[in-house]
Write a structure and sequence with these properties.
Helix content is 37%, strand content 12%. By secondary structure, the chain is an alpha/beta fold. A 5-stranded parallel beta sheet has the order 3-2-1-4-5, sandwiched between helices. The model has no long low-confidence stretch (mean pLDDT 92).
Length: 233
């Protein structure tokens, strides 16, 4: 049987890596797509390269765009990354680590590659539970983009392909994602989640992403193999 092709967005983080592993388990021939978009560090790109290789992606490409042109985020401008925020603080408002229109841009690139590959499936590891403050991680956004994609492409208009955006993690907690990754055999040592690693690539342990990751591993009853520069309080 010929495998179906899928474009899988891959940052090298826990969520996108688990999403890629899930797509591979479900029989998709995966084309992993990462972005060098002017983010604070290159550590996540190295992680994406490791994960794509370990999980047997058919191809892995890194698109280079510069969202620092616009800034507006702690990940693309000279703005401090928030640290030591409580769960309550993280659950309210849109955080400064939100990158304006990032998932819209990333999905547009994935859509272009999918059309060239003549494939119908795109995977993205968005999560609306832990990242409810990010407007481009919500189901309404995904559904709207999928509808637009089928109106905006030659393949969609001609009816040869109907694009489907897969979001298998969107309703899972971080602990659920950790458990799923473990079940899929994901080597967590290959991944990277920190927004603000040190010069050696070690995770800070205090940004929102680190806090959520560590909480997820703790609640899943598993050990996070990454090295952090701070211990859990």
């Amino acid at each position: 049987m010929t495998s179906r092709k899928a474009v899988c967005l891959l940052s090298g983080g826990l969520d996108s890596s688990t999403c890629l592993a899930l797509a591979r388990r479900d029989g998709f021939e995966c084309y992993a797509l990462s972005f060098d978009y002017g983010q604070r560090h290159q550590v996540e790109l190295a992680a994406a390269e490791r994960v794509a290789g370990a999980l047997g992606a058919r191809e892995h490409r890194t698109a280079r765009i510069d969202l620092r042109t616009f800034g507006g985020s702690a990940l693309t401008a000279d703005i401090d990354v928030p640290k030591n925020r409580s769960g309550e603080e993280m659950s309210h408002g849109i955080p400064i680590t939100y990158v304006p229109a990032r998932n819209t841009i990333f999905l547009s690139y994935a859509l272009a590659w999918a059309e060239v590959l003549e494939c119908s499936d795109i995977f993205i590891g968005v999560n609306a539970i832990d990242y409810s403050g990010y407007p481009d991680c919500r189901p309404d956004f995904i559904h709207a983009f999928e509808s637009m994609a089928n109106l905006a492409t030659k393949a969609g208009v001609e009816g040869t392909t109907r694009i489907r955006i897969h979001t298998p993690l969107i309703t899972l907690s971080k602990a659920d994602i950790v458990r799923l990754g473990a079940e899929l055999g994901l080597d967590f040592r290959l991944t990277h989640s920190c927004y603000d690693p040190d010069g050696e690539g070690r995770s800070c342990g205090r940004c929102d992403s680190c806090v959520l990751r560590r909480k997820g591993f703790a609640e899943a009853g598993l050990t996070d193999p990454l090295t952090y520069t701070t211990s859990i309080a």
